[in-house]
Design goal:
binds iron/sulfur cluster, binds uracil, alpha/beta, five-stranded mixed β-sheet, 5 strands, Uracil-DNA Glycosylase, subunit E, 8 helices
Length: 183
């Protein structure tokens, strides 16, 4: 099922992001992961490799996951759009809308207990269009039978050093949240 969704994504031409892509990036991880991580969209390294979070933000993500007692193999990682927005700009609302069925399909098949959003676009797409990441990061929210945990995007800490301690603190919180939610 996940493979079928991935195959559709690789051929997809539903929005303009298909034009400049090298590879679409469907996502990666165990098909029945209990935790999903959802970012914003592929960057340059992801576009070149077809894999999510393999560039600089991905390396930082790995060390953040470790702080929460997690490894890559524990989580399914994908993005709200599967093709790289030019120059890493935020995906446009129409691109997110065009791509939404793939994400919904992945969530339905994987059926995770916890979804962590990474960054503002994923937060506003999946949890609350009006939410402010600086207010709600690290605060879990039960919604539609799932536990959502909004987190800063790891790339935020690459641009803003002052955010690093906050990201680390949120990973500690995430570890406690997961201990309860997955018990
Ligand atoms: N940033 C994202 O949001 N997703 C990736 O896959 C890589 C970088
Ligand atoms: Fe299709 Fe999503 Fe890629 Fe747009 S971003 S072309 S909707 S897979």
């Amino acid at each position: 099922m996940l493979d079928e969704i991935a195959a559709e994504i690789r051929q997809c031409r539903k929005c303009a992001l298909c034009q400049a892509r090298t590879h679409a990036v469907p996502g990666d991880g165990p098909p029945h992961a209990r935790i999903m991580l959802i970012g914003e969209g592929p960057g340059q390294q992801e576009d070149l490799s077809g894999l999510p979070f393999v560039g600089p933000a991905g390396q930082l993500l790995d060390s953040l996951l470790e702080q929460a007692g997690l490894a890559r193999a524990d989580v399914f990682i994908t993005n709200i759009v599967k093709c790289r927005p030019p120059g890493n700009r935020d995906p446009l609302p129409e691109e997110v809308a065009a791509c939404r069925d793939y994400l919904n399909g992945q969530i339905a098949v994987i059926n995770p207990r916890v979804i962590c959003t990474l960054g503002r676009p994923a937060l506003q797409t999946l949890i609350d269009p009006a939410a402010s990441i600086s207010r709600v990061h690290g605060v879990p929210r039960e919604q539609d039978g799932l536990l959502f945990v909004p987190l800063y995007h790891p790339a935020a800490a690459l641009h803003r050093q002052d955010l690093s301690p906050t990201l680390v603190e949120d990973m500690r919180k995430l570890q406690l949240i997961l201990e309860k939610a997955l018990a």
